[in-house]
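User: tokens in, sequence out, please.
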């Protein structure tokens, strides 16, 4: 009898310990469970003002030749009322709704219906069914990686139309830019709201959901980790990559076509923006399998931040340089153009090589060569929600020995190059570098906070070995 009771007690203790462990690791890893006032204030600010910021930028180009100060001056001096500006803003049209619906449907069809064939003939390209990282609940999701082929098919059709079929003008995106903005907003809000409802009522994986109890925080940062419809329609992979990033290069092409139509030529600055951003987009799709291991997929939950951000913020604000150049066609002198090209290519190379080093290191579990040598690293461990202990490695050599996020530094150099391509007349094209600096610095701090919770003392060893974040010796 006593033995039986002791066994029962031991089992209860074990169960209690497991619950505590689970709580601890749930609290440690992933996005917040509790919302502090600063996070809440930031979130409310973004929810209220991010759509206005996008509107302000696009409207200022449409009505004020891209001046960011003139609309404010007009309003402050009483020269114009808000209603005057609003009344001159193009409204939602059936044409834009048709174009947008067709566009999104086409991307869904490419994503869902055509399994990847690029990996069968492109050496070095990783496509087809790939596994993502282990989630906090210990799940490993499978993804159909076919973004490169979606991008190629879309662009082949675009060029075929522009050169042979002429079903629609290549300026179609620019010509419907503001009506399309309303469509993108409708989709952005619809998908974020749907994701929230889905998180409550029919989550894909209940164990990977997070509820803070704060409606605004949950709406913004998401509840579900990897919401899906059916086995394959993954919200994060679809909305981040397509329609937003596939559209990025098409939008730039449409802006270039508009320059051609308005001025009879495409300026070298527009070509630079198209080429440099084109390389970045193509790189994204070439490395879509690698993208499965980035913060967006591995750590962020799917809410308004990703849903609305992918539908509206990305296609509208990442393409500001091209839009600006339609209104201000800048022809750069050769030295300036070459300087921009060099900076853009150098930034891209650093960005790519740094990301590649980590990817190679993680894929081979450290059994590779970085700059001709075996990589150095720190062994670390962490717990998933089910209480299982996992092991990982943090590299401390190559670019990852220079700074903890040198990939961001390369990204920022490339971003600066896009802005510099637009000359120095206006501040609007420089929004991108300001935004990217804030985004990546915040992301770096956010990621480090998460890694610190995940790896504990092992992370401290790592930061002691690699003390700088973005710039060796400075930050
Ligand atoms: P990283 O690719 O830098 O991934 C960070 C994760 O990598 C960490 O959470 C950690 O994950 C792991 N890690 C960190 N340090 C090491 C190390 N020393 N060795 C091995 N693994 C390490 O960040 P992102 O996902 O944010 O960025 C990916 C790229 O996308 C970047 O180049 C960035 O510039 C770009 N980007 C571009 C954006 C844009 O809007 N243009 C937006 C965001 C990103 P783990 O838990 O697995 O250890």
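Assistant: Sequence out:
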């Amino acid at each position: 009898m006593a033995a039986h009771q002791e066994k029962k007690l031991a089992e209860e203790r074990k169960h209690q310990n497991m619950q505590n462990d689970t709580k601890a690791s749930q609290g440690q890893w992933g996005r917040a469970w509790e919302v502090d006032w600063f996070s809440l204030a930031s979130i409310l600010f973004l929810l209220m003002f991010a759509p206005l910021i996008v509107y302000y930028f696009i409207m200022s180009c449409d009505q004020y030749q891209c001046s960011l100060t003139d609309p404010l001056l007009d309003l402050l001096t009483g020269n114009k009322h808000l209603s005057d500006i609003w009344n001159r803003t193009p409204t939602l049209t059936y044409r834009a709704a048709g174009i947008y619906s067709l566009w999104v449907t086409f991307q869904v069809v490419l994503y869902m219906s055509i399994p990847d064939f690029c990996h069968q003939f492109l050496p070095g390209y990783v496509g087809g069914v790939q596994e993502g990282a282990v989630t906090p609940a210990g799940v490993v999701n499978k993804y159909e990686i076919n973004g490169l082929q979606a991008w190629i098919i879309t662009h082949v059709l675009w060029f075929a139309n522009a050169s042979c079929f002429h079903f629609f003008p290549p300026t179609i995106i620019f010509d419907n830019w503001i009506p399309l903005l309303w469509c993108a907003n409708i989709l952005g809000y619809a998908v974020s709201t749907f994701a929230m409802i889905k998180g409550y009522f029919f989550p894909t994986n209940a164990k990977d959901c997070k509820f803070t109890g704060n409606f605004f925080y949950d709406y913004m940062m998401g509840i579900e980790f990897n919401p899906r419809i059916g086995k394959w329609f993954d919200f994060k992979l679809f909305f981040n990559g397509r329609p937003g990033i596939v559209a990025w290069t098409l939008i730039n092409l449409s802006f270039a076509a508009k320059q051609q139509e308005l001025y009879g030529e495409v300026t070298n600055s527009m070509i630079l923006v198209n080429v440099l951003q084109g390389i970045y987009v193509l790189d994204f799709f070439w490395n879509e399998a690698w993208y499965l291991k980035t913060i967006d997929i591995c750590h962020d939950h799917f809410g308004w931040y990703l849903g609305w951000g992918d539908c509206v913020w990305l296609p509208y604000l990442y393409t500001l340089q091209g839009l600006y150049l339609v209104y201000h066609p800048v022809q750069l002198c050769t030295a300036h153009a070459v300087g921009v090209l060099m900076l853009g290519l150098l930034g891209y190379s650093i960005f790519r090589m740094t990301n590649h080093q980590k990817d190679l290191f993680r894929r081979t579990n450290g059994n590779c060569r970085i700059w001709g040598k075996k990589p150095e690293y720190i062994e670390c461990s962490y717990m998933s929600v089910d209480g299982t202990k996992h092991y990982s490695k943090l590299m401390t050599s190559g670019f990852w020995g220079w700074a903890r996020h040198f990939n961001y530094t390369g990204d920022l150099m490339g971003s600066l190059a896009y802005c510099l391509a637009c000359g120095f007349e206006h501040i609007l094209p420089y929004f991108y570098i300001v935004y990217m600096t804030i985004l990546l610095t915040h992301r770096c701090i956010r990621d480090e906070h998460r890694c610190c919770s995940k790896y504990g003392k092992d992370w401290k060893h790592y930061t002691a070995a690699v003390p700088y974040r973005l710039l060796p010796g400075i930050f």
